[in-house]
Amino acid sequence: MPRTQSRSRTRVPAGYRRLGSYHGVEEYELTKNGLKVLYKHDPTSPVVGLMVTYLVGSRNEAVGHTGATHLLEHLMFKGSKNFKIRDGVGPLDRFAVKGAQINATTWLDRTNYYEVMPEEHIAYAVELEADRMRNAIITEKDRAEEMPAVRSEYAMGENDPLEALDKHIWATAYQAHPYHHSTIGWLPDIENVSIERLRRFYDTFYWPNNAVVTVVGNVERNEVLSLIKKHFGVHPRAPHDIPPVYTVEPPQTGRRYVEVQRAGTKNILGVSYKVPEALHIDTPALLALASILADGVTSRLHKALVDTKQAVSVKSDYIPFHDPSLMILYATLADGVTHVNSEAAVHDVIETLKEEGVTRAELARVLAQLQTQMVFARDGHYAMLSVLNESIASGNWKYYFDLPALVSKVTAGDVRRVARTYLADTSMTVGHYIAT
User: Fold this and answer.
1) Same domain, yes or no: 75 and 147
2) What is the pLDDT of residues 376-407, one digit of tens each?
3) What pLDDT score was predicted for residue 320?
4) Structural contact between residues 247 and 177, judged by C-beta atoms closer than 8 angstroms
5) Which residues, 6 or more positions from 276, have their beta carbon under 8 angstroms from its beta carbon?
6) Which residues fall within 8 angstroms of residue 205, CB to CB, at 6 or more apart?
7) Nearest residue to 78 via CA among 88, 65, 70, 68
8) If we measure between CA atoms, which residue out of 222, 234, 232 comes closest to residue 39?
9) Which residue of 1, 20, 247, 289 sits 20 to 30 Å from the alpha carbon of 182, by its own alpha carbon?
10) What pLDDT, on a 0 to 100 scale, did the predictor assign at position 90?
């Protein structure tokens, strides 16, 4: 591949609108159909990563077709008009033997499909992803064949104590907003959704103007933009508006409790609080607060519960999403310790923090820890694709680059303020996993 031209001195192919650049990532829009393209040149190795992010996740589902996004993700590997299964082997399987890393993931706010491959295969990957954007083969036969795999994934979650408790906490905390149901969906919906309903879901959301193509690696800008235009450019914009998620969760007005009794060896306590969306001004301080409370052996809940033999482990589960979500504090309890006593201990730790604030030393520790995590999180082609993918899902692909600077400015006063604002009893949902 020729790399003698300077990207800054060559015009982009006709049909594109340049939207700007940020931290080495260039953004373009294919004007014909609204497809967004993010491009980052990385000549450090002969590798290219390609990811297509669709702005559809389990938050776009409703009663009767929960789990549709995930089930459709499985069917998207069954071939498309120009990339069919031959002799029982799919096009992506044939691609994998050429050295490509291939997969897809589904979550609350997005679905993504990606390949990380030797640079000489970028044209094949672009053509394949463009074809399955609008030409996927979605049949009842394939749905039936995929059901054992999907049921197995569902069972794995049900049999994992922490995942089972987590699902019920979200379902109890959210009553109106679709974060109520997990990405895997409810089993009756998974097993009974019709292939016609899945096709309608595909035809509603899988369009260029509801997607972002991200390219990171050793490929020239105009080369890959031309490929994207050639293959993705054949698709029109969606003939309809992409349905927005307009449901807002009503304010919670009191504590909620959920109990899960399942087989297991340890009891688990989960204490959750409602927190704002990812792009909210308080997110950096909430990240620091979650770390201070339950990340690592120096965290406050580790000292209060693990060091005193009341728990064998603690952890925080706080991932900012597109819409207001949850900060959950988990404790796996030691034998003989009751949920009531451990919940009281968690409450005491939080009330002390709200009353006295945090020390400079513990704030400095968690800010350094968060900065390190954010640097490592984008180390490598797939890592960079992944962090951009989550930022796209949050509503602003630039957010991940802004976050380290925002975190560095968090003060002890900010942490105390967000603790007082969001860690309120009225927005609390408590979950008890009781091992039987």
Assistant:
1) yes
2) 888 889 999 999 999 999 999 999 999 999 99
3) 96
4) yes
5) 282, 283, 286, 324, 422
6) 54, 55, 56, 60, 242
7) 88
8) 222
9) 289
10) 81
Chain mean pLDDT for the chain:
95
| Residue 5: per-residue pLDDT | 40
Pairwise CA distance, residues 416 & 430, whole Å: 22
- Describe the crossing of helices 68-75 and 140-159 by its angle, rounded to 10 degrees: 130
Q: What residue ranges of the chain have pLDDT lower than 70?
A: 1-9
Answer yes or no: are the C-beta atoms of 220 and 1 closer than 8 Å: yes
pLDDT in tens, 88-133: 778 888 888 888 899 999 999 999 999 999 999 999 999 999 999 9
- Residue indicated by tokens 């950096």: 284
Distances (CA, A) of 388 to 52, 61, 68, 196, 234: 11, 23, 24, 32, 25
* Rounded CA separation 38/389 (Å): 10
* Same domain for 424 and 351: yes
* Token reading at 434: 């009781």
Indicate whether 249 belongs to any domain: no
Where does 209-324 show beta strands of DSSP type E?
211-217, 256-262, 268-275, 311-318
Which structural domain range is residue 350 located in?
A: 256-435
Cα atoms found within 13 Å of the Cα of residue 262, Cβ hemisphere only: 18
* Residue reference for tokens 């044939």: 94
